[in-house]
Amino acid sequence: MDRGSNQVSPREDDELKHELEGYMRSGQHTHVEEANDPEPPADDDIVVDPSGPVPPPGEERDRARATADADALRLELSRHLERSTFPADRQALLTTLEGHHAPGQVLEAVQRLPEGETYNDVTEAVRALGAAPSGG
Asked: Which pLDDT band, with edges at 50, 70 and 90, does 33 fall under?
């Protein structure tokens, strides 16, 4: 049987097929050692909608990253705050977040909110931090 431009012998080809059989059947990596698994995406990688265009470098990409960061902050705040918390000032938000064991980065963000302001919802609090969440 002619294999054309294949760089491996038929025996090596069968070995490779055997190595991939578990992965093909299970749909997940079958490495025993974690070091052999592919790395997950980095925290600072840009999250891109696969159906949309990739943002070019520069201001547009920075804007996309800032919006993604604002959306992530809004999501974290929403996970730890109930609607009954609002309207609330900075101290009330901090007290509620601490009671719900919110992550440190969320507490730090809320500590940056201005004193004496009252927020009617999570989106207002995120905007007060200088971030603009999408869709809100």
From this structure: low
* Integer angstrom CA distances of residue 106 from 54, 68, 117: 28, 15, 18
Q: For residues 117 and 110, is the Cβ–Cβ distance under 8 A?
A: no
Residue 25 CA from chain centroid, whole number: 28
Give Cβ neighbours of residue 89 (< 8 Å, ≥ 6 apart).
Answer: 115, 116, 117, 118, 119
Alpha-carbon distance 106 to 98, whole Å? 10
**Integer Rg of the chain from CA:** 24
pTM of the model: 0.50
